[in-house]
Amino acid sequence: MKVLIAELRASIVLTLLLAAVCCGIYPLIVWGIAQGVFPGRANGSLVEVDGKVAGSSLLAQRFTGPKYFHPRPSAAGQGYDAADSGGTNLGPTSKKLIGTVRERVAAYRAENGLLPDARVPADAVTSSASGLDPDISVGNALLQAARVATARGIPKEAVLKRVRAHTEGRDLGVLGEPRVNVLLLNLDLDGKM
Amino acid sequence: MDIYGWVQLAIFLGLLLLATRPMGLYLFRVLDPEGKTFLDPVLKPVERIFYRLMGVDPAVEHDWKRYAVSLLAFSLVGTLFTYAILRLQHLLPLNPQHLGPLSGDLAFNTSISFITNTNWQNYGGESTMSYLSQMAALALHNFTSAASGIAVAAVLVRGIAWHTAKTVGNFLVDLVRTTLYLLLPLSLVYAVFLVSQGTIQNFRPYVTAQTVEPAAAPQTIVQGPMASQVAIKMLGTNGGGYTNANAAHPYENPTPLSNFVQIFSIFLIPGGLTFYLGRMVKNRKHGWSIWGAMAALFLAGVLLCWWAEAAGNPRLHALGVASASGNMEGKEVRFGIFDSALFATVTTDASCGAVNTMHDSMTPLGGLVPLVNLHLGEVVFGGVGAGLYGMLVFVILTVFLAGLMVGRTPEYLGKKIESYDVKVSALAVLLLILDIMGFTAWAVVSKWGLAGLNNAGPHGFSEILYAFSSATANNGSAFAGLSGDTPWYDTTLAVSMMIGRFFFIMPVLALAGNMAKKKILPESGGSFPVAGPVFAILLVGTILIVGLLSFFPALAVGPIVEHYLMIRSNAVF
Amino acid sequence: MAAKAHSLFEAAILRQAVVASFAKLHPRSLMKNPVMFVTGVGALLTSVGLFFRPEGEPLGFGLQVAVWLWFTVLFANFAEAMAEGRGKAQADALRKTRTRTMANLLTKDGSLEKVLAEKLRKEDIVMVIAGETIPGDGEVIEGVASVDESAITGESAPVIREAGGDRSAVTGGTRVLSDRIKVRITANPGESFLDRMILLVEGASRQKTPNEIALTILLSALTIIFLVVVMTLKFFGIYSGVPFSVTVLVALLVCLIPTTIGGLLSAIGIAGIDRLVQKNVLAMSGRAVEAAGDVNVLLLDKTGTITLGDRQAAEFLPARGVTVEELAGSAQLASLADETPEGRSIVVLAKRHGLRGRNLAEMPQARFIAFSAQTRMSGVDADGRHIRKGAADAVRNFVGGQFPADVEDAVTRISFQGGTPLVVAEGRRVLGAIYLKDIVKGGLSDRFERFRAMGIRTVMITGDNPLTAAAIAREAGVDDFLAEATPTDKLALIRKEQAAGYLVAMTGDGTNDAPALAQADVGVAMNTGTQAAKEAGNMVDLDSNPTKLIEIVEIGKQMLMTRGALTTFSIANDVAKYFAILPALLIGAFPVIGPLNIMRLASPQSAILSAVIFNAVIIIALIPLALRGVRFRPLGAGALLLRNLLVYGLGGLLLPFPGIKLIDIAVNAFHLV
After folding, report:
1. Is residue C301 flagged as an active site residue?
2. Residue ranges covered by each domain of chain B
3. Cβ density class C355-383: b for 16+ within 10 Å, e for less
4. How much of chain C, in percent, has pLDDT values that exceed 90?
5. How far apart are the CA of A133 and the nearest CA of chain B, in angstroms?
6. Of the candidates C34, C42, C348, C456, which lies 20 to 30 Å from C293 by C-alpha distance?
7. How far apart are CA B355 and CA B562, in angstroms?
8. What is the pTM of this model?
């Protein structure tokens, strides 16, 4: 019993001490360095348009109009909810998944004027893990370029040039996948960058 | 399965190989109460203050029972501490979103979840937890549960390395040293790196963005002290995400580089622990053999998972989806197939449980890999500490099973494996299996269990099986379609996590205590060889046979049937 | 009985074993073996389940599964009964020697009283006269007798038993051939060696050894795990809409739990002791046999174990001015009447120097002087010559205190090389020295080499001086030696090795060996030894052959290896059984899983039945292996592990696939389901 009380006492003291160090001093040091050295990134890589926060370059937001590149489908909250991230969690034999993808494939072909048997990029019709995936695949972007060009009344070549400019290669040449950031690309097309 | 994947895999294993020795040597110093480290000038005074305030004499060592009492007492205090904060977060500071208190069930589940190093999340981080809760209630345990795991591993290693010893160490000393000298400094550097990649670290309220397309509604963007927490969640193989989407969230894991470092950081300490073992028992080859066995199991898992995900979902391909990019449902474009498969494999090889892809949406065989990893007890490098002590239990069982074949009473590093050792080792394994299978069986036939399902059919079964496997294995990842925040799941999963953690640690400590008492027989040509390829293959074989044989029927009813349904039928659920 | 090995399947033993397998179905008997108990319960369940069959499950299928499950239990019982039966056969032979022996009990008033041998108690004193059987284990306290111990040892030559010294122990059941002795009985009825041996080989007093207990725990844990697996599968079936019947679930369970090793475990243990008995070694417990396998250090007595008991003349070293022939001739003359092995070997050596054999009849006047402890010389006086041969210092006295320098050198050199010098003199003239050599037994150094590979160190114990000891040690190839050893040194050495963590085995026979025998982990007492020595050790070698220690170690190792090999085999088997049964269980509800049926078994029912049959038959198939033991190979642990893993691990993984497939073909060929 005496042992137990001693242990409990020591445990309580240790919990408080560690709380102070690990949950107080440590995050504050990180915060200090972060705000000092990388203030933009530490505060969310926010993108401002006309002095107002228009979103984050790291987070997808909803684009539905034809003149914009469309991000991947989102299951975050009611869609693109940056305070409620998440995926669909539908399994590969889910009736709902297969049904939804069937509709999206049809819609994607229709929007972008593709042939009825055209292959559709997987990322264009499947929901991302976070629901906030800021990127689309290069293939997906190229397929959308014609539609955006038409809607904006500019040559497709001009759009493709912007796409290429916003195509990010693999990190260090090998890590991850090449990708196109949708928000930055759209802002660029709007001339707001 | 493109060349970039193979190159990344090679780099990953190569870096792990390089990091193992220095990490192991550093652990050797940290886990020795008298060990010297380069951080002594800064941290030694802090360490002394800790002991003074706690009233602990760092020179005093205890037997395994007292060690267990310390661990349990500390865990109890931590659980109550977290429970209190979660229930009272609306009254506490650092809550700019004015989030309300958690329900009793959820707070209980979450406290247990973090104290057991599981970090199962029945809540969505950004929509439930205040900054204080994130930092004090949750991140605190990211440190302490990781340190406890390392401490227990150290005790078992000491039990094996020491001879005719009555004591195994001092829990509070091990805990303090591991936290101060190992976890804190590494996390600090790591967190700053993450910020450089785009992970946020601030205390501002959530930001409202007026989105670019006028028709779209304004977007509320999560903020908070994220980087400091993500660093330790990966390093300590905790895995509890700041956000619901965890490491798939672009803030938590902004770039392929941050992703690669995060995956690597999961294996960093567990890899080093194998070297620590070899160093302690003065048989480095043994440490490396275990490393090799782990690496083999890791490779088998990652290759199967990668192959299955790259092959994609034929049902979607039939609808006109391009098959070249694989199964992208529940994945992020910047990571693609390989980085997602690698993450899923590594996070379940270890008891991390962070995810950068939604396991629920993986192909049946791709999802089988994480599930099997959990069933093997997460011994492939494994959770910090937990992986090593789990692996050592398997080693003891392997040595016992095969040891007789060399015509001697089974001997592990000069210590005879006797019925007591077999008893506690078998008990530990048995309890885990009972825990997973028992709760799963209950869930699949009860209305409470079935109520939480997001998918029907074999996939629904996998969701439940995964939940209890993850809870028992203290992983925390999920087939996240299952809505676990019901009183029934909150409670059963919490019990499952407690069994998986403490009902495993207790036999392990008993084993350590018993091993420590034994004499060491000098090695001879007749000693059972625990170094070299034959031993590594034998170990892998035992793990696969013991692990898979127990779960094969369950896997058959879940992912294996689902796989054949997916490729050979049109059935949907 | 001794040394008679019973062929594996002797008709009488088979018959008894079959009967015993049914007797062993008693729950109390089954309870001792958790794996078989679960199998038995499973068999019972399926039998009862026959009356509650689910729709669509034919009676024939359920019945056959039930029958084969019962067979599984019976086969395991049979294995144990076989092992016990073989032991009993040995025991019965022993027992015959002691039925209705009468004893002459010496009563307090000094008169003799005829009593039944089994009435004798410890400390009773009996008189045994030529032609009588010794009624119990005891010690000769008066008299000398030659005793026929062939009943115990199989050795037909009689041995001398006399009061005092190290040859005083007699064993019940042996027969006195000449003279009469007074024997103090040292064991109560039922406690004598024979009794203990009978109990042990019959398996009645067999206690589980430490390894066996640990293994049983592991097997029980596996059994519980698979119970959980199969019971929860029922619930998973409910979720998936597959109603698994009791029959198929029990079939799966029995195939998964380690029935093979569970069924053979006790047979392996009994067979190990039995194999020792066949080598004429009585182990006092199974534990001792197991310890023999673990031994790290063997203490071997030089004389009798490493060297032949007798030295032999190896070389004549003549003094200056003496020819070899002259020396050989004199030595031969001096040894003609010397019937000791040394003497004979001198005659033999002389013959090799071209001297014709002479015999005593040629020299009627010769007076032969026999060796005596006082003179320590022997020799001959004939034709006026006084030839003597003997220990160097004795001959030195005989010749007047001085050897020529070269003879002195030769004597020293022989000593250095581990030999014994004999000096030959005629009158005062020293002719030269004879090199008597310890002859190291053939093949030992190979054997020690193999022991080294297995991690066993051999230490030679000898009373010789360190120089001699070192020379012999080198020649024999032992790792170490203890020279000028006293019993106390021996005990100290054992303690030292044990403190370093080693297990030590030794042989001994004298009373002064008793403490060391008791201290050693494996102490093998010679049957010719004293009662005290036999009590102290945990094994008795009836042949009194110290070399046997090596075989004892091999038998111990072999027993452990057999256990490990069959355990590995048993568990590895499960993989194939899963691939037979699981697809069969699920294919009804999920026809898509067809490809999982990799053995292409004909139907779900034949698949399940085939797996169950395989599981039962493999027990029978492995009984010979369990009884004989896996082949012992003196290899290092690494090589042994690899080898056994390939044979029993990989073999266990692969063999059941063709096995089950063949049974499946047969089952379908005979339309059994």
Report:
1. yes
2. 384-572
3. beeeeeeebeebebbebeeebebbbbebe
4. 30
5. 6
6. C34
7. 22
8. 0.89
